[in-house]
UniProtKB/TrEMBL annotation:
It is an enzyme of class 5 (isomerase). This is Triosephosphate isomerase. It comes from the Bacteria. Keywords: Cytoplasm, Gluconeogenesis, Glycolysis, Isomerase.
Amino acid sequence: MRKPIIAGNWKMNKNPEETQEFLEAIKGKLPAADQVESVIAAPAIDLNALVWFSKDSDLKVAAENCYFEDEGAFTGETSPKALSEMGVDYVVIGHSERRGYFHETDEDINKKAKAIFRNNMLPIICCGESLETREAGKQTDWVVAQIKAALAGLTAEEVSKSVIAYEPIWAIGTGKTASADQAQEMCHAIREAVKGLYNEQTAENVRIQYGGSVKPANVKELMAKPDIDGGLVGGASMVPDSFLALVNYQN
């Protein structure tokens, strides 16, 4: 049985003081770690505060990005080695905003996935199609190609531990949400792709999130689908009460 994973993605929001205030507001209110994995992905400047103030809690910490080299002359980049040493658990890679605004390629994302595993963290690998791709009926081929490229060279054991986040670009920050059936259809296609690349057990192990205007009002319907194991949540994760409603969706 795959453990549900609800991850908030704050994007470029909140400072360290606001991070502390948020964590104080959710303290002692998260579901048990064996029921739901609760994660916050925060900007790099907030990670130290997030790690520090989430100690002795069930909250996992994610970075929103990293570079694929551990160190060197890469001004402005974030070292995966340093993230691991800080106590970060996950790194989000391949988000559509990184692909679109910063021109990250499938090759970049694959290198980052390998760097994350090399440094004993786990990747949350994002994938998703544009509205134009969906309207052309090519969404499944597009997303499966992203998955194949992102996982190239990873072992079955590594993929089993990974998280894949399906985020249709047309549903991110727009208020539009893929229907639960649309989300399930693509998450199932991703699981089938992993099965074809590796084996049935690896496909059964990998956790697949849906992201794109997930909120307390629709999280239960999405989580009821057999191939949806969690959510990668933007705006609804930045308010303590809303985040708590998401991670405690089973109650």
